[in-house]
Design brief:
The structure holds two protein chains of two kinds. Chain A is mostly helical. Chain A is built from three helices and no strands. In chain B, helix 1 runs parallel beside helix 3 and helix 2 crosses helix 3. The chains are: A mainly alpha, B mainly alpha.
């Protein structure tokens, strides 16, 4: 995210607003994708109009596991990014 | 300041486009739940979310309920009642997933808050 610091201050504010909008949109997309995924996996009978007990449990577990998975993936991704940045900075320092 | 850090806006009115397609009661429940989940959406983002929800729901219920034999143009009675139940179950599922997401977000917000407090306390102690 070094590019953000390179922007002038008035554009930085706008960028942050755009970023926030993107995050909102992305979280809504995630919500819908998660619902679709968990419904497809967990619900297979249509005898009644409401979810059965085991289906409710399955859906809740599915959602929680997905969130935890996303968090873990984000953590490892951030670590990888930090490592890459460090390597790039070291290479730049060695070259100069 | 709401969950997404935006000013509270008046919620959008009922959407005429999908009024016929949804079971009205279930949609009202989901709408009120969604509004409590995120205090105020940008109306366009909310609209897009409902469009997305509808498209995914239609696709999923088609996959679950409609036979692939395609012998006739009309839906069979069983397929129609399956579709009704599918919609009801899908909206209930949507609600449950929203509740789980809300709890996770609240937990994360609490964690960030406590981290911030710890940082401030450490900074003040120096």
């Amino acid at each position: 995210m070094e590019g953000v610091q390179n922007l002038p201050p008035h554009l930085q504010g706008e960028f942050m607003k755009t970023l926030e909008q993107m995050q909102i949109k992305d979280s809504l997309i995630m919500y819908n994708t998660l619902t679709e995924r968990c419904f497809a996996t967990c619900v297979s009978s249509f005898r009644s109009k409401s979810l059965e007990k085991h289906e409710t449990t399955c859906v809740q577990n599915c959602a929680e596991r997905y969130i935890k998975m996303t968090q873990r993936v984000g953590l490892r991704f951030a670590e990888d990014q930090a490592l890459r940045q460090k390597r790039a900075a070291d290479a730049a320092a060695a070259a100069s | 300041m709401n969950f997404f850090g935006q000013k509270d806006e008046k919620p959008a009115g009922p959407d005429p486009l999908f009024a016929g397609a949804y079971h009205a009661g279930a949609l009202r429940a989901v709408r009120s739940f969604v509004r409590s989940f995120v205090r105020s959406f940008v109306p366009a983002a909310e609209m897009e979310m409902y469009t997305n929800l509808f498209n995914k729901m239609a696709g999923t219920c088609y996959e679950k309920c409609a036979s692939r034999k395609h012998k006739e143009a009309d839906l069979a009675l069983g397929e129609m009642s399956c579709a009704d139940r599918c919609v009801a179950k899908y909206l209930e599922c949507h609600e449950k997933v929203g509740a789980v997401l809300q709890r996770a977000n609240e937990a994360q917000a609490r964690m960030q808050q406590s981290q911030l407090e710890m940082q401030n306390a450490f900074g003040a102690g120096r």
